[in-house]
Amino acid sequence: MKALLDKIRRGDRRSLGRAMSLVDQTGDQARALQDHLRQSTGQVPWWGFTGPPGVGKSTLIDALLTRLRERQQRVGVVAIDPTSPTSDGALLGDRVRMMRHAIDPDVFIRSLATHHREGGLSDAAIHCARLLEVGNFDPVLIETVGVGQNEVDIASVADICVAMLGPGYGDDIQLIKAGLLQVADIVVVNKCDLPEATRLLKEVREELEFDSSTDGGDEVRPPERRCVGIEAKTGRGVEELVDQLLALDAAARTAERRHHYARRRFRGEVSRSVLQAFEQALERELNEARTDDLLARLDRSEISFDAVVAELNAQALAKAPGEAPGK
Amino acid sequence: MKALLDKIRRGDRRSLGRAMSLVDQTGDQARALQDHLRQSTGQVPWWGFTGPPGVGKSTLIDALLTRLRERQQRVGVVAIDPTSPTSDGALLGDRVRMMRHAIDPDVFIRSLATHHREGGLSDAAIHCARLLEVGNFDPVLIETVGVGQNEVDIASVADICVAMLGPGYGDDIQLIKAGLLQVADIVVVNKCDLPEATRLLKEVREELEFDSSTDGGDEVRPPERRCVGIEAKTGRGVEELVDQLLALDAAARTAERRHHYARRRFRGEVSRSVLQAFEQALERELNEARTDDLLARLDRSEISFDAVVAELNAQALAKAPGEAPGK
To answer: Under DSSP, is residue A153 helix (H, G, I), strand (E, B) or coil?
Structure first.
């Protein structure tokens, strides 16, 4: 493992790719690598990009890559890959454009196939981002499509969260906007050549202003969240966005902020793992025959729903793995 | 409670609205009502509608309401309301159009504000759908915006799941398509006046054909899932869709299918409640100081990540409520 990590540190792209495949497996080797990465990384801010489907995330990241390379940054990207095996390829233009940067030795793009239909971030994405840190990529960009809650919420993983909005979502834009404004450090409104986007930009600015005047909550969220209007395709507004991102990035490098993010990521990882173990125990407990029995007792008013929940809770608890598997 | 339910059965809309507010609360009265609804409903198929933001769900439901009313159906609708308090109203045209049906005594539309930013289905939506059954609305339509996993997955709640797709989502359409095809009984491609939608329709048809030839899984999913191309705004294709929905609806009324759906809904409700109780116990356990301590031990290699998970699992288990809180 040490040899592999040394190679990655020296810039060996093949080793980096191999480690990214290894770290997503389940054996002892993968676990040892994961634990090592948890300890040895966390100094590089991660920039998360999220927004509804079709808003232009890949196009924006493509534009950012060009500008960050002009400023001599080595950039790593973790992207959730929406490629379906039956796609005809014609629709994948945006992603193809971004991938042209992949031949640049100072850019590394990892497309992760989605394991689940949610299309969200997985633990695999977190491991890959850590490996990019080992390979001296800085910053690390993570792209994820978002409307509902993703499997792992980008906002709890990224140090800087960029939320993208744009025209063309009808009434649903209100729902998207409400969700994204809660987690965004920077709101980017794309396709600002269109009137609907201009109106959206105005709305978001008003809401952010209102929000910052009443908000006294999270101490690490920047006091003034910004909203930038861009045209990702032509690059208009992207330079301003890069400046703002780099300013946030610099602010995220204090010891206090690093500790905050390390704790948050670790806590998220632990929670997910513990919950998953419990959920599996519950699934085993709540099999078909058992469900039918409980349902019948409920129908005969022999038991209340609350009592069903309490009963299952006690039984799943008794059977969930509570012993350390080693160590 | 009996008096309230009797009024709802006789068509008193105000009582129905009051019960919908009551059932979402936490007291004994709400719990008793929930338990009663669990036992006394489940005979009416629920039609779920999901799809990415802006695909035209409200517009389709508006068109369906018109046609179902022509066929003398009394229709109930549960819609997740994306209205944000600062919206200027101008964007809410689709929803407003749908709401014009709300003055029809044989239509009842309940807009549920989203409690969480996910915008998904909540337990409240399930309770409301059950109350619509009590009020003799048949069928019950449930609308939810979907890309990621919703808080409660529409596919596990609805008897018939309609997935909507359309043009304008760039590469992300592959991800959306892959997710929705897994849960849909009927795939609706909207905006079929646009060339991108026509291509999408062709793609979906090919995938469904391929899928049905290899699939031997779920016994209750109709053997041939259909794909219908429509223009929700002009109504083109909607009549064909209504025919197909009513055919599926009729098929969903056998005793076997009713039992299947009752079990699935109940199981989902139980799982969510048990998991929630456990998650709260875990949250209390995994407080800030505790996280810092574990993180420090991990950094000093005194403990592995797996051991952290096992330790927390055991402790959260010990503290989760395992006793019945009264029948």
So the answer is: coil
Do B146 and A151 lie within an 8 Å CB cutoff?
no
How far apart (Å, rounded) are the C-alpha atoms in residues A303 and A312?
13
Instruction: List, in order, residues 6 or more apart from A146 with CB less than 8 Å away.
Output: A50, A51, A52, A120, A154, A179, A180, B147, B148
The three-state (H, E, C) secondary structure of A180-194, written as one string: HHHHCCEEEECCCCC
Q: Could you give the ipTM of this predicted complex?
A: 0.80
Contact list, B284 vs chain A (CB under 8 Å): none
Spatial CB neighbours of A132, under 8 Å, sequence gap ≥ 6: A16, A44, A76, A78, A108, A110, A140
A214 contact partners, CB below 8 Å, separation of at least 6: none
pLDDT in tens, A62-117: 999 999 999 999 999 998 765 544 333 333 456 677 778 888 999 999 988 765 54
Enter the DSSP assignment of B23.
Answer: T
Radius of gyration of chain B (CA): 22
Nearest to A322 among B301, B317, B327 (CB): B317
Query: How close, in Å, is residue A76 to chain B by CA atoms?
Result: 21
pLDDT digits (tens, 9 = 90+) for B63-75: 999 999 999 999 9
Contacts of B194 by beta carbon, 8 Å cutoff, 6+ apart: B167
pLDDT digits (tens, 9 = 90+) for A182-210: 788 999 999 999 999 999 999 999 888 87
b/e map B4-26, b = 16+ CB within 10 Å: bbebbeeeeeebbeebbebbbee
Residue B256 CB: number of other CB atoms within 10 A?
A: 9
pTM over 0.90: no
Q: Please work out, in degrees rounded to the nearest 5, the angle formed at the alpha carbon of residue A21 by the alpha carbons of A20 and A25.
A: 115
Chain B contact present for A302, CB below 8 A: no
